[in-house]
Each structure stands twice: as C-alpha cells, then as structure tokens.
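Lab notes, practical 5.
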Amino acid sequence: MQQNNSRAHIIYACIAGFSLFIIAMGINRFSYAPIIPYLVNSHWLTTPQGGYVGSANFLGYFLGAYSTHKLTRYFSIKKIMIVVLIISVIASTLCMINFGYIWLSIWRLVVGIVAGIIMVLTPTIILENMADKSKAIISGIMFSGIGIGIALTSWLIPHFNQWGNVISIWTGLAVMTLLLALLASAKCIKASNIDKQSAIQTNKLDNKKRRILFFAVTGYGLYGVGLAPSLLFLSDYAHRVLGVSTELSSLLFAILGIGCAVGSIMGGWIHNKFGNYYSVLFTSAIGIVSLLLITFTHSIMMVAISAFLTGFYLIALVVLMSLFVESVVGMPRHAQYWALMTLVYAGSQFVAGYIFSYALNFQFSYHDMFISGFIVLILSLISYMFIRQS
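Output from the prediction step:
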C-alpha cells in the first residue's frame, strides 16, 4: 500500500486513534470501577453484584476480541467500526435506566464487546499506511487515549454525580461517547479491509516464532489476571477499607489514568531506546511493584503511587506487546495475532474478575485479592523471560 505520511494525515490518525481508545477503554472498559461506590451507595447494586457487572464487561471484551477477526471475513472494517460506535452510544445511553442488576450487566456486556472490537481493529486502521519509523510514536500517542480517558472519566464522574446522582453519570459518559465517535468516524469510514489472503496464511509461522508467541501470550494472559483486582476494586477498596470519600476514590482511579497516559508515551520511547525484550521486563517489574505497594501498605499515599504504577504498567505493556506482535508476524498479520493476544487477556481477566467477585461472598478480602494478583504478575514476568530463550 502507498504510504501517506503528510503531517495532517499523521495528526488526524493520532486524533482518531486517541478518540477510539478513549471510547473503548477509557469509557466502555475502565470508567466502571470508579462508578461502583456510587452504584452501591445509591442501592443500584450490592458490592458482589458490582463485581459481577464488571465481570460481564470483561466477558464482553473477551467476546469482542474473539469475534473481530471472524467479522472481518464478512464485513469491511469501516462497516464494523461505524456499527460498533453506534452501538456504543446506544448501550451507554441505556445504562441510565435502573432496571436492576441483570439489565445493567447486559449493557455493560455490550459495551465490553464494542471495546474488544475497537481494541483489535484500531492499531491496524491507524498504522496501516504509516512509515515504520513513525509507528512507535504514533502508537504511544494513540494508546495514551486509554490513560487520558481513564483519568478524564474518573475526574468527571464525581462532577456528573453532583448533577443528578448515578443517572447523570451515565448521561455524561454517553454524551462523551457520541462526541468522540463523531470525531473518529472519518478515519473509520476510510479504513481498508484486512487482506484475506494474509489472514489465511497466518498459521504458516515457523516453530521459533510459535514458541516466542506462546510465551508472550502466556505472559499476557497472566498479566490480565494479575491486574484484575486493581482494575475492578481499587476505588471500592480505598472507599470501604481505607475509609476515603467516593470523590477521593475516583481521584485514585484518575491517577491510574494519568499513569496510563505516561505509560503509553513512555512505552514507545523505551521500545525505541532499549528494544522490546528489555522494555517488557522493565515494565512488568513496575507492575509487580505496584501490587507490592498496595498489598503490604495501608497508606493512601502508597495506594496513589500504586495506582499510577498500575496505570503505567497497564498501557505501556499494551503498546510494547502490539509492537512486539508486529515485529514477529508483520503488519498484514497483526490484526489476527493482536486479536489472539487481546482474546487471551480478556478471557483471563473475565475469569479472574468473576472468581474474585464470587470469593467476596466467602470472606475473601481485597487484601487477599491483591496478594493473589502479586503472585500472578511474578509468573507473568517469568513467562516473558523465556522469550529470549526461544
């Protein structure tokens, strides 16, 4: 394909990717955790139900990642993206209606599906015609939409709540989704279809590349499990165990979002500076430290630092693994194998989220969750170490 690397093209590609990731991850995925205390306090949900609804969102993300490559065999990327953006706006709007736990679970499931599809297709849409030298920086800016989206929604949620309680929170998020969808729609409409011949050839990797991908996918799945406690219950832990206000608990998740934004930019930079392998190990070590702080201290300051480091790790590793997948299989096969990575991450996080939520009914504490996550992240780091041996 002919590359278009004019400044205007690059800037709009960054803006579109940035907007899509705010929708998918900043709103549809990670805005829910800081809303849980408001839902529980307003008697929309109980605490275990809050976890189950979050797990439904994880399941949706899994289903979205799983179905994306199959959808591209029958529909163009532009049709898929426009439809899921419309669905995202509708589903976000329907969350305003309090028809009970099952109703909210259904629509959080739907926006999770949308998030999984956007997560898989956006890197291909944005990077398909970009020069190799620009991809790391563009990826960093694009993925920063996740962090800035988390920080922005976490900061706005208490303000939305003041306008009319939980209903106004959902209204504010739905309006944000609509505006960002309109901003990104031109890029989605111009997207090309995935090369079907390339998709057919994706199984023709040599044994060394398959071993490398096996350890990478294993580590990525463990990363999803290890992060589940923080991504689901950080805000509620701060509110119910440490006794902070709902406003401050939302602010902690905003700090996590700031960490995501920094991690997305730094992920591309450390990739260029130190190479993917050492960057992955360094970033994984940061994730372990983040859970170390929240597990073995009870200081709100340490929890805030943990939130920042969790966000840094969360998105820096996404940037690095997206670039890693391209380096192993090439851009024509990127969507196929990035879908696999996203699928494993989403599936592992759904299972972990459901198990942790269920365990809350049996005296399993938030502290126990964070210890479990800490152990799993160590296993994730060990798995990445085997990439060099393959």
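Observations recorded by the TA: Residues 195-202 have pLDDT under 50 and may be disordered. The two ends are 32 Å apart (CA to CA).
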